[in-house]
Design goal:
The complex is a heterodimer. By secondary structure, chain A is an all-alpha fold. Helices cover 76% and strands 0% of the residues of chain A. Chain B has one domain: 3-Layer(aba) Sandwich (Rossmann fold). Chain B is built from nine helices and twelve strands. In chain B, the strands form three sheets. Chain B has a six-stranded mixed β-sheet, with helices on both faces. Chains A and B meet through helix 9 and helix 10 of A and helix 2 and strand 6 of B.
């Protein structure tokens, strides 16, 4: 990928992070943020920056990276520019797994992603089976329909699970269904980072296979790819990434849709380039969307997933129109 | 080099086998052609070479080794294959597309080696696509696209080249150029296995022709043995005559109108 592309992406991430540190119910000057990062200056400012905003940005960066890489890998492997974990119902399945774990009191930051992963794998398997049964593997819209249906079912399942939960049901439901970075802690962000790094590394290692799968299954097989094995690995790793993001921040849609397209438009040529770029761009987008979520109706917070959906839905419609 | 031995192939849940007991071989140094009506099993044979379909009976043997015993990578290093249809999900620069042919020769993290670059350059020159290496795949005409795909197969290397209707969408000049290229590659020692509907060209270029009908072999032999009017008329279910072209001396098939001309 060209230097210019990387510069743009990293600058966007830096800018979003700076905005994330400076903006909020208490607006801080860049200078105050800078000092607070090193523990200097007003103790309240230091507390706001180091314990509230910094972990939130860290979580946003890793969540966005996971969503971006997952979307990029799914789009290429499924040969579908509209594919992404949320629209494919994978995130919904992860939410069911995560909520089930929470209701069973197994919600440690290390375990939650595992439960979410189990839900995500069930969902992705269902979606692929439904799409295959519909007999239109070639039609990208059938796959999305299957994803939306499975996603809707997952939403209903989450509601059912939460209905039995005693306290804070409504808030909890909203958190899972609409996504939020509001509960960010350093510990949580670290766990998400570990899982995202693992899943991301798996997909980057599969980069050459993913690139060939984007040509179609027969051409990929002709060039030497074990298609069944490679696609299975991609689905598993992409599901893991989606699941971790759900465990860390609930359902945040459309990031995996928008970000790979932006990176490709900026000139990324290889599958690995698109995935790495999507990691950076995804982090920037989620952090920026979180800034919007925190500031437009301050001191109230919008759900993060609502902000990304407001950006993502028009983008989705534009893409859909170009496809049909 | 490539041998099908009494191969039966069936798609999942299909009532009838798509290929039913076909035996044929494609030796080095010759063009072997597979012809036959639509749905006669030509492309199914090609897909079996990709390991996408496992024979229900019989074996496919590559240089003495059963295909099933070869990894996909091993198979791809021996056989370069141009599938019938291909549409990249995202636009690619032509040079990058041809470079994908080198996949089987690299490791997980290896970049392009000097050997890769040499193979890519030679393949592009051979297929005549030098001039548009910097263009993107959606900008190519049908003919250019086919040549770029052949270039990728050449970059892939291997002793066998399998092509499924490589000259569909090509005009006369481009079609002839492809056949001449395949002829030259075969003369250099490669095994060329070609699925085609262009019987007249196949009759001039191929050493042997396999004629398929409803998944079974109706004939397999030299062009003069297969290009027989009665046989082809029966297989294609259309009235036709086969004569001999006075200019080139090869058999020529001419389909007739199915009613008397006015």
């Amino acid at each position: 990928m060209r230097l210019r592309t990387w510069t743009i992406l990293l600058a966007a991430l830096a800018l979003a992070s700076l905005a994330g540190l400076a903006l909020g119910p208490v607006a801080l000057s860049p200078a105050a943020v800078w000092h607070a990062l090193f523990g200097a200056g007003d103790p309240d400012t230091v507390a706001i920056v180091q314990t509230l905003r910094l972990p939130r940005i860290a979580l946003g960066v890793v969540i966005g990276a996971g969503l971006g890489v997952s979307g990029a890998a799914l789009q290429a492997t499924l040969r579908n520019p509209l594919a992404e974990p949320y629209l494919l119902g994978v995130s919904g399945g992860a939410a069911v797994g995560a909520v089930a774990a929470v209701t069973l009191h197994m919600s440690s930051p290390a375990l939650l992603p595992v439960a979410a992963f189990a839900g995500a794998v069930v969902a992705v398997t269902l979606v692929l089976l439904v799409a295959r049964a519909a007999g239109a593997r070639g039609d990208p819209r059938v796959l999305l329909m299957a994803g939306v249906v499975v996603g809707a079912f997952a939403n209903a399942a989450v509601m059912v699970l939460l209905a039995g939960a005693p306290s804070e049901t409504v808030r909890g439901a909203l958190w899972w269904m609409m996504g939020s970075l509001g509960d960010a802690t350093w510990q949580g962000a670290r766990w998400v980072a570990v899982y995202v790094a693992f899943g991301g590394a798996l997909l980057i290692a599969l980069g050459r296979e993913i690139e060939l799968l984007a040509l179609g299954e027969d051409p990929a097989a002709a060039l030497g790819v074990d298609v069944e094995r490679a696609t299975r690995r991609v689905y598993l790793a992409a599901s893991l990434l989606a699941a971790v993001t759900v465990a860390g921040a609930g359902l945040v849609g459309f990031v995996g849709l928008v970000v790979p397209a932006i990176v490709r438009a900026l000139g990324a040529r290889t599958a690995r380039g698109v995935m790495l770029g999507a990691a950076v761009a995804g982090g920037a987008l989620v952090v920026a969307a979180d800034v919007v979520a925190r500031t437009v109706r301050s001191p109230a917070e919008l759900p993060l997933g609502a902000v990304t959906a407001l950006i993502g839905v028009p983008f989705f419609l534009m893409r859909l129109r170009r496809m049909t | 080099m490539i041998r099908f031995d009494d191969v039966v192939l069936r798609y999942p849940r299909a009532a009838r086998a798509a290929v039913d007991g076909v035996s044929l071989d494609a030796p080095r140094g010759a063009i072997t052609a597979i012809v036959g009506p639509n749905g006669s099993g030509k492309s199914t044979l090609v897909r079996a070479l990709l390991g996408r379909l496992t024979p229900e009976r019989g074996t496919i043997v590559i240089d003495g080794t059963p295909l099933g015993a070869l990894s996909r990578l091993d198979a791809a290093r021996r056989i370069a294959l141009v599938p019938q249809r291909e549409e990249p999900a995202f636009p690619l620069v032509v040079r990058d597309f041809i470079a994908l042919g080198r996949y089987a020769h690299g490791g997980v993290w290896s970049g392009e080696t000097p050997g890769d670059r040499a193979a890519i350059g030679a393949a592009a020159a051979r297929a005549g696509v030098d001039a548009f290496l910097a263009r993107r795949t959606p900008e190519l005409s049908g003919g250019e696209w086919q040549r770029v795909r052949i270039a990728r197969a050449l970059a892939q290397g291997g002793d066998a080249l399998v092509l499924d209707e490589p000259t569909a969408f090509l005009d006369i000049a481009h079609e002839m150029a492809v056949f001449e290229l395949l002829d030259a590659l075969a003369r250099e020692g490669r095994a060329v296995l070609l699925v085609s509907h262009q019987l007249n060209l196949v009759a001039r270029f191929a050493t042997r022709i396999a004629l398929l009908r409803a998944g079974a072999l109706a004939a397999f032999g030299a062009p003069d043995d297969v290009m027989r009017g009665d046989l082809l008329e029966r297989v294609y279910e259309w009235p036709l005559v086969v004569s001999r072209d006075p200019a080139v001396g090869a058999p020529v098939l001419v389909p007739l109108r199915n009613r008397a001309p006015r």
